[in-house]
Batch of 2 targets.
Target 1
Amino acid sequence: MAAKIKAGDKLPMFSYDTPYRAQNRFRDLLAAQAPLVLVFMANFGNPVTRTFASRYAETYDKLYSGGFAMVVRSRADKLAASLAQDALPFPLMCDADGVLYDLLEIPTRGSAWTAYSLEAWQILRQAKKQGYRAAKGAEQQMPLTLILDKDGKVLFCHYGTSLTDVPQDCEAMQSLLEELELIPDSFEKAELTGLKD
């Protein structure tokens, strides 16, 4: 592929590692959770990434018409040592080498001025008060949000223009699925049945 992905393209099937299990099949995740919202962010040590992972965990039950997974540029073995096994209710895919990021041409930016939103500045300012120190001159990994069907076909694609240009929480993901009319028939039938009872 080696180009920016767009709606209608297909993501190749691959294996991925989480902090607690290696060689998971992406095909199995799609089969179980499509439509799948897939959010790519910076490494898990980045305060912005951690903030959004926490938000997604806290609001996970608001996403009931599809699945969700997060991709981070971190090593699975490093995260396993610092992240409790049941800390997140969704898969955390680790791509430390940036294979998927390169494949999908997810950009990085060298300047904080072009990468940070007001929200990112606020998150990072708070993190600095707690001892966080960013590496000087480090490239900033931009995010990407995809929605995929069970075959890996891209139904929605958004390359973020700042570190926080991703769905705010899982309720926002649910709203996006509804607005794009991507709710599977089985969910619609279940809702109608619930209304009749």
Target 2
Amino acid sequence: MTGLSTVAGSGIVAADVGGTYARLGWVWMDPEGRPRLRHLRRYDCAGHPGLGAILRDFVDELARERIAAGALAATVAIAGVGDGDTWINANLPWPVSRSRTLDEAGLAELELVNDFEALAYGIAFADLGTLVPLVGSAAPGLRWPALVLGPGTGLGAALRFGDGERPVLASEVGHAALAAGDTFELEVLGRLLQRWPHVDNERVLSGTGLLNLYRCMCEIRGAVPAWTSAAALVQAADSGQDALAAETLRRFCAWLGSAVGDMAVTFGARSVYLAGGISGHIHRWLAEGEFERRYRNKGVLAPAVAQVPVWRVEHGELAVLGAAAWHHRRQAAR
């Protein structure tokens, strides 16, 4: 996600920068401290030579539309972690250097922040009426700490506390080791370990991971892979034209449910919000029941996990608002 603001602080350009798309918008904070959004735009990351080019395009558009002009500062929320001038991410179509991005975009200031950290800030501004229940029957509400996670190009997660000096704890749970939940998943995991010395959650529980899972299932079932993109695989499953594609989606949702339950236990979450680009595309499969069954399957802790509701949340604009909230909090603390 990205937040741009005038140096005078009159507004923020916030954006969600993922492995596939970057969403940017002009945001300002109202007197109650809630972010307000206008001029939302979406960019194809692969269609631009780098993050700096996307920022430059958007800043130029703001000037043409007479929305904002002059020296701008930016806060970019993006999947991964910082290492000096470099941002470490395995899912972007190009490398990210803070200094190079600053120069290419023609910005006055630039900050980088983990995308799910910003999304966790944004969850406080979610429209509760749009939340879709996946586990539990409790009315939608914000129960802290809240685990915000989701599969997209990768797998991101962060924990949101009610308030405090540090209300969000970022994580890189997508790169934690993947755990198998039954003998079939052990076989899949064994095949993946023949390709990679470390098989993390993203190797299965992401857009690219969905294809990894599908190829392994084809090997196990003695089938020839018919689909080369996650979108095509989901479409084939949705249309009913490919039984193995449907089996892959069911297995993906079950495995995701198990992992989400593990994270809820690990973080001590009292509510869970499932975001990420993949979640919206596979909503019918998430609702079939295997996600919930595996989420609840936590042995002696099963009764406790059953009290932690899970909702699916559409995060497009929410991530943008969260970026602005992160930026605003940093400014207020200075």
